[in-house]
Sequence to fold (365 residues):
Amino acid sequence: MSNKRVGILTGGGDCPGLNAVIRGVTKTAITRYGMEVIGFKDGFEGLIDNRFVILTYENVSGILTQGGTILGTSNKANPFQHHVLENGKIIVKDVSDESMALYKDLSLDALIAVGGDGTMTIAGMLAKKGANIVGVPKTIDKDLVETDTTFGFDTARAIATEAIDRLHSTAQSHHRVMVVEVMGRNAGWLALESGIAGGGDVILIPEIPFEIEEIVRVVRQRSRFGKRFSIVVASEGAVQKGGEQVVQKVVSDSPEKIRLGGIAQHIANQIENETKIECRVAILGHLQRGGTPTPMDRILATQFAVKAMDLVAKGNFNQMVAVHGNQIVSVPIEKVMGRQKLVPRDSDLIEAGLSVGTSFGIKMD
Ligand code: F6P
Fold:
């Protein structure tokens, strides 16, 4: 044993592949580097409340294929904005000094933070206070900058694609328009890629505000050509031109307060009104985040975990592991903080969609 200790936490919304990272980090730390691993419970909450488990080879064995995270997670916990009940009132406190004190008391040599943009931003802020941080990018939204992709995305894309495939047959039987709503927050990657893979007739993403007239035009044109059904794939963040995103819920004690949802119903109502064709809505929701990861996500998560431990062992801190082409690399975490990767208007995927006759909800050349 090297007497070195590394902490790991999973923050933000869960996604398939988190357990593969926990397993990869723990096994690599123990077998390759002789280090001890402690896992904080429920993301940054564990680093605030002093809740953790020692991770051994035995307790990470068999978790590779499991969805979720054995450590638990939280998309509310933030040591820089901790919500506490005092004298019957919720107040927001900065407890980051206390979290840093715990980091030191536990004699941690490094902390591996597995999460999305929110987690990377908090981790980067802890790095500025002296913690040795390595970030691992996860999210089904694929909206982290400085990496080609994130683990979790491939699984969510496969689930959404299968759903679109299944909706095709029922839409066809009933001569209906099906509007399927997929997650992704402000980024359209999940809708775009599952929509192209599933052959959606219209794909609506937040980056391209849509016009209902264009969707109606596509549906009517398909009817004229004998296709008496249509599939509209709508990102939860899709927005009508001149309108606003549809908010499903405001979570006031979460750093990211807005939860999107409900745009599909809004679109379906308008299509039905205009065309008199029956419309139905399918909201995939958290199904996209559950269950076993695809082989690609298991492999990526394992490669990220090994790279993260290699960085820890080399003392190369305040980095986020990333994938560039076929290479697993690392980038300064500072470059990732507070940024989101959105779909560019000139994306090859949009071009490919246009070439095969997909509409993006507005007239495009
Ligand atoms: O960021 C992942 C994600 O699943 C988004 O796609 C979605 O908008 C959000 O999290 C949902 O959050 P919650 O789990 O709090 O409902």
